[in-house]
Amino acid sequence: MYRERSTGGVAKLDFTVADIPEHAVRIAAMAAIELTESILRQPGGREMLDAETARRKAAKAAGQKNERS
User: Fold this and answer.
1) C-alpha 36, offset from chain centre
2) CB of 13 closer than 8 Å to CB of 4
3) Separation CA 56–CA 12 (nearest Å)
């Protein structure tokens, strides 16, 4: 359920995935696919995506290690 709160003068939106209309999910998914395909068509695009994926995985692994400590 969507709620709007104000914390310290900053508005914060609370919502769940179920609050997002199905058509909006489809539009976002199609946009993500189109972006990925356009990057892959560029010279060096595959390498750029692979580097970004590796960076995100390393950051996630580092975050998980910090949470265990």
Assistant:
1) 13
2) yes
3) 26
